[in-house]
Amino acid sequence: MLVYYSSATGNTHRFVSKTGLPAKRLGPQGDTETVEEPYVLVVPTYAGGDGSGAVPKPVIKFLNNPDNRALIRGVIASGNTNFGSTYGIAGDIISAKCKVPYLYRFELLGTAEDVNNVKQGLEEFWKRQN
């Protein structure tokens, strides 16, 4: 399962929808959301050039719930290459803090190749988890 957060721009939502995989969208409050099965988190990066504020607040609130945090198995992040070294940094932060692999990063709403890579990569990833 994918769990994702998408802002008003909807880039992450469109990307996740294109995968056709089972998914749960986090609402703006994050802390009220719960999951009951292992998942991969898909998260946009909100950082500018300095990297501050990279992980959206609803995602932080969601992961602050110990039950949700216990079920995360990996992270995928979107970003904007215009921000250089902070491109997709939300994935780096979550990967380090939750001790899960950073599986993939894509720019903005992703390409057809990104969607295919994620679908194939997740299929292999979940096989290795079982």
From TrEMBL:
Which gene specifies this protein's sequence?
Answer: nrdI
Q: Which organism is it from?
A: Martelella endophytica
Pfam families named in the record:
Flavodoxin_NdrI
Give the matching SUPFAM superfamilies: Flavoproteins
Q: Which family is it part of?
A: Belongs to the NrdI family.
Q: Name one GO molecular function term.
A: FMN binding
Please give the function described in this protein's UniProt entry: Probably involved in ribonucleotide reductase function.
* Gene3D superfamilies membership: 3.40.50.360
- This one is known as Protein NrdI
